[in-house]
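so the lab meeting is tmrw and i was supposed to have these ready like two days ago... anyway. pasting both below. for each one the top line is the aa sequence and the line under it is the structure tokens. i havent really looked at them closely yet so no promises
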Amino acid sequence: MRTKFSIVVGLSLVLAVVLSSCNNKNEDVYVKTDWVSQYTLDKTIVEVNTTNAATGFETLFQSIITDSAQQAILCQSFIQPVRFFDDASGYYFVETYRAWMVAHATNPGLIGTNRLDIQDVNGKYYVRDMVNTAIYTGNGFIEYYFSNPATSLTERKIGFVKSIPSAQLFIGSGFYGDPLSFYYTPNEAKIKIAEEATRSMALGMGGALSGYYSDTANRVEFCRKMIDFVRFFDDQSGYFFMYDFNCVNLAHGTQKELQGQKLYDYQDSRGNYVIRELVSVAKNVEGSGFYEYWWNNPVTGKEEPKLAFVMKIPGFDYFIGSGIYLQ
């Protein structure tokens, strides 16, 4: 069955805005303690998206792309088309542990430059902080000031970096400014995270598949490696799955036995032809959307209701999806 998700979220956001616009001194009275602020949601989206890309790159670089020059080409092909957040201000960049820029989505002119001594408008050596965080901590947030591609203004940026240790690289992204005081229920926040994670991965895969891989066999191997170890959410129930428009499973983060199978006739326990419907969503005018069905939760081992978001891979008759379990 198709979900009326957009209406539900729309009403919830209206409520959230009303609540957040109430007397700020008594904000805690109106907003439930488990609700998620826009600031926290933006931080989580940045962390999840960046970690997912880093996890995929690490898997690829450990196994099938070991040459540093080819790694750089793959990174640029993947990150070039990726934008996230409603204003498209979210993007990726990749640097070495020695602060050489390897790939940059919005300013490719920086590629090949060393940025170790770069300072922001306040004199902060923020790239040094990124390098040290990547090398010694593995991941973390860094605050600095940088040009926002959505406004062309220098704004405060909350950046997140994640190491790609096998290649001695790190990937980063971030968000700008101070988000409005919107609040989301935990499920609304998880749905938004799954949507942004899927969009980012779909755009990146489209770039990599068209810019780096030329034959179908290598494309399928890339898809499987890229999503193989990606997990998100606190309980690790977030993962990706991919199908072609003939309902053949190309890659699955948790159920490898499905890979290569045509699941056109697969039904969940409620009689929904799940893969057919997901294909239908991916083939609509927008090329993306939500669908609710029942599927095995890899954390609990039980079939549970799932709200998935799927998106067509640009340039290919493939789609990628992820989602949240509703129980």
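ok protien two:
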Amino acid sequence: MILVLVEVSPAGEAVETSREAVTLARELSAAGGGVPIDAVVVGTPHDALVGVLASYGVRRVHALTGSAYDSFAGAAWAAGLLDVRERAGSVVVMAAGTPRGNEVLAHVGARTGVPMAANVISFGGLSPFTVTRQVVGGAALEEMRLSQRPAIFTVAGHAVQAAPADAAGAGELVVEKPDIADADLVARVVSTDEPEPDLSGALKSARVVVGAGRGAGSADGFGDLLELAELLDAPLGVSRVVTSLGWRPHHEQVGQTGSRISPDLYIPCGISGAIQHWAGCSTAKAILAINTDPDAPMVTKATHAVIGDLHEVIPAINAEIRRRRA
């Protein structure tokens, strides 16, 4: 049996990256002859959430309940996940490669003494079970053999496209009330602050991202880029130098110390493509680079490139988009 930790949004919905993990679990199930897939959620789910997970082929939804789950505690989530796993006998434990998913499964790995593979994008043979995962901030790929059981791994965001199953699962809800040790609640979230509004949009889940680097010229050089982003219904992502210079806020930064994105299309404008930035965008399915330097790393790695000044190229693109939509 395959067990998948599913993260739930404040609105009570399965987050996209968790639905992607269930989709990959379904591919793994098919390769293994149709082994069942169960999901674990924290808190009592709405009927709609159970229905969505059933549509993705989930047999049972195990809901971890009790005061220990009133706020996030990585060790407590791992203890509950292992409690379900030990009774269900799952041979695979998975989660989305989010900060919480990676933390919880790291606890699971430590408690079981089994290596964990983070940010997996695909799997190869089943005997031995081999996965391919992102390393060095996504700048390289590594094959890793998971010979011990349970196999424990997280799935990199947007490595697969979330899609419902051809045949729905039973979607049986099982309410769990595991006993959680006090030691598992020592490190937990005790308070939260409202974040500042993210005016750049959801970079990590965006299908199109417009990027901007030093080539913007100044804090006043983003007007055309923001217009393009609006026309494409895309967020703006920027390089580290842009935030270091104070031209744009840090939450827009793409890179090893910013957001890591995997859009269908990334349009980096005036970005040289240093390794720090490349680590955050290398998994984009297509890259259209706009730069004056034909030898810039971003240009040489791009799917397509336009050699020119972004302040001339972007207004022309915007005008053409508006003309075609008129």
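from a quick look at the 2nd one: The chain is about 30% helix and 25% strand. The domain at 2-185 is CATH 3.40.50.620 (Rossmann fold). will dig more after coffe
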